[in-house]
Every structure is written in structure tokens, then in C-alpha cells.
């Protein structure tokens, strides 16, 4: 039976007096690969920052399971955060540290594993993302796609329940992007983690997401939610159908010179 891992109720987001989105309601269910969609500037990154507790809601609540995150104190929030793995758009690896040291960082910070256990876990996580043998490389010594995968290895170091991605495939070529999609899907299957992501990569949405919301910049409301493939055909909002049908155009050829 599926259960909600994140519940958003009547969420209004604003920067000071500047309203970004109002009355947003949705649930992320366990095992979802959930995508936050919408045109540029609609508030996708802002919503992700709310989910991570980096920005506080103007109104409404964010809950993780039965815990009200919005009202939680620092200790409770920290406990919840330890169940999250986060990869930022830039990757966020520390450039002066090897991949192994980067992946070891959260383990050293938040677990009680011994040094030798940490070495084993790091090797396992790097192998899971296809970076076996790259332990001693610095981030600058590997490709962009490999850096994204290394960041993913670090995000899964503590076996999180929820993985958050901000534009995971930004800046990647289509093949690396596809490989990252496959990896996210595979990790979701093998770890049972739920995945929440912001992405502009429309082909990725159809490849891996089962659930999504669409934030509309004009009305400043979440105007649709559900399975993206279903929404592409059946959304009652033309703007949502158009947004998702662009994906088919992108996926079907490289002929556009835009
Ligand atoms: N710190 C801030 N202070 C004021 N306004 C902000 C701030 N950060 C973002 N905004 C504004 O909030 C709106 C939503 O921004 P956000 O980055 O969340 O959109 P987005 O949907 O992620 O956009 P994109 O797809 O272009 O990355 C934009 O109009 C942006 O200019």
C-alpha cells in the first residue's frame, strides 16, 4: 500500500511581497519519481527550497510522513534531513577532495561507522553509480556526467528515503543524460527511495517520472498533477499539453536549430 512521504497543504510561496505560487497542494507517494514542472520562473526551484527547509512558507504546511516539517524545531528537522539525499545542479562536489573523500564526507559527519566500514561503503556507492576504480580521482579529472554520478554516490551514502535532484542532467549531452536517468531509475528500484526532481529535460520526464505537478507562472497556481504521459494527452489545460508535447518534439529529432 502506498503512503505519502511528503504532503504539501495550502502552500503559498513568496519573496517578501512578491507572490510566487499560492495554495499548492500535493502528495509525493513512497516509490514515486516525482517531477516539479512548469515554465521558466514559475517557482520550481523555490518549491524545492521550501521542501528542503531553505525557505519558509508564507502560508501552509509541508509534512514528511506524519511529521509537520514546517512547525518542527531544529533538532527534529535535522533528524528528517538525515533521511534525505540531495544533489544540486552544480554537483556540489568539493574540488580539492578525491571522489572517495567526497562520498565519505556525509558518512564521517552523520554516521558512527568505523574508518574501514566507511571505505567499504564508499567503494560500494561509487560502484553503484558506475565509478568503480575512480576513488582517487579529483572532480576536475573526470567528465561532467561522471561528476553528476559521483554527486549521486554521495547523496546515497547514508541510504536516504528521499532523493532530491535539482536539474540532474543540466549541461549533459543526451547520452550522459539518458545514462543518468537510467541510474536514477535503477537506484530507486534497488534502494526503494522516493525521488523528487526539478527538471527541464522533458524526455527525462517521460523516461522516468510516474508522477508530476505543473506550476503555472501566470496564474501562480499548480494547475495540474498526475502521470506526465497521461497529462500530455489528457490535461484539460492547453498550456500543460503544449509544454509536455514539446518533449516529443525534442525527443524525436535533433533538427531544431533554436
Ligand atoms: N531570492 C529571491 N528573491 C526574490 N525573487 C526571487 C528569488 N529567487 C527567485 N526569485 C524569483 O522567483 C520566481 C521563481 O523563481 P524560481 O527560480 O523558483 O523559478 P524556476 O521555475 O525554478 O525557474 P527556472 O525554470 O527558470 O529555473 C522568479 O521570478 C525569480 O525571479
From TrEMBL:
Gene3D superfamilies recorded: P-loop containing nucleotide triphosphate hydrolases (3.40.50.300)
Signal peptide: none
Pfam annotation, one family: ABC_tran
Keywords: ATP-binding, Nucleotide-binding, Transport
Every ABC transporter domain range: 6-242
InterPro entries per record: AAA+_ATPase (IPR003593), ABC_transporter-like_ATP-bd (IPR003439), ABC_transporter-like_CS (IPR017871), P-loop_NTPase (IPR027417)
GO MF: ATP binding; ATP hydrolysis activity
Alphabetized PROSITE patterns for the sequence: ABC_TRANSPORTER_1, ABC_TRANSPORTER_2
Keyword ATP-binding: yes
SMART domains per the UniProt record, alphabetical: AAA (SM00382)
Name assigned to this protein: ABC-type (Unclassified) transport system, ATPase component
Organism whose genome encodes this protein: Congregibacter litoralis KT71
Amino acid at each position: 500500500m502506498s503512503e505519502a512521504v511528503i504532503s504539501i497543504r495550502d502552500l503559498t510561496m513568496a519573496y517578501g511581497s512578491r507572490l510566487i505560487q499560492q495554495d499548492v497542494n500535493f502528495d509525493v507517494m513512497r516509490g514515486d519519481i516525482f517531477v516539479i514542472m512548469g515554465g521558466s520562473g514559475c517557482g520550481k526551484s523555490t518549491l524545492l527550497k521550501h521542501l528542503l527547509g531553505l525557505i519558509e512558507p508564507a502560508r501552509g504546511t509541508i509534512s514528511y510522513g506524519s511529521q509537520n516539517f514546517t512547525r518542527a524545531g531544529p533538532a527534529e528537522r535535522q533528524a528528517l534531513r538525515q533521511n534525505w539525499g540531495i544533489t544540486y545542479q552544480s554537483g556540489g562536489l568539493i574540488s580539492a577532495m578525491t571522489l572517495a573523500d567526497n562520498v565519505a564526507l556525509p558518512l564521517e559527519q552523520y554516521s558512527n561507522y568505523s574508518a574501514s566500514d566507511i571505505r567499504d561503503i564508499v567503494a560500494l556507492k561509487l560502484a553503484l553509480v558506475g565509478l568503480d576504480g575512480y576513488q582517487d580521482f579529483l572532480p576536475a579529472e573526470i567528465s561532467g556526467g561522471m561528476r553528476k554520478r559521483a554527486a549521486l554516490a554521495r547523496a546515497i551514502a547514508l541510504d536516504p528515503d528521499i532523493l532530491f535532484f535539482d536539474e540532474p542532467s543540466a549541461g549533459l549531452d543526451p547520452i550522459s543524460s539518458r545514462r543518468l536517468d537510467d541510474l536514477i531509475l535503477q537506484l530507486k528500484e534497488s534502494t526503494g527511495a522516493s525521488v523528487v526532481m526539478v527538471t527541464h529535460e522533458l524526455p527525462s520526464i517521460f523516461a522516468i517520472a510516474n508522477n508530476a505537478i505543473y506550476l503555472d507562472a501566470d496564474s501562480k497556481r499548480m494547475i495540474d498533477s498526475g502521470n506526465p504521459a497521461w497529462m500530455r494527452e489528457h490535461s484539460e489545460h492547453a498550456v500543460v499539453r503544449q509544454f509536455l508535447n514539446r518533449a516529443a518534439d525534442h525527443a524525436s529529432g535533433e533538427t531544431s536549430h533554436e
